[in-house]
Here is the input.
Amino acid sequence: MPKSKRTRALDISQKVRKAVYERDSDDGISPLCIICKRGDMLSVAHYIPRSLSGLGIEQNLGVMCIPCHDKHDHGYPEERKSIDRLFRKYLQLRYPDWSEEQLRYKKD
Here is the structure.
């Protein structure tokens, strides 16, 4: 069964995933967690989650280690708030015109 337009928009393509890993590395080769700077057990996290229609675009994504990603998704409210604040600041520094409005899927 083909994926819906929304599902495709929220998924992270291999091209975008590669670009995010490159962006989030100090040397262009070895990515680090954008929260704690750990270099192992890495994944790509959505700032605006897919459950809230967060797009799979570079401006909505960051590399996180599994522990930080888990806290971002399921941590105590104060942990999530702290990580979200750091995540937001990180993305704003890389994309000067960054806006949360641009990160959500909008039905045509």
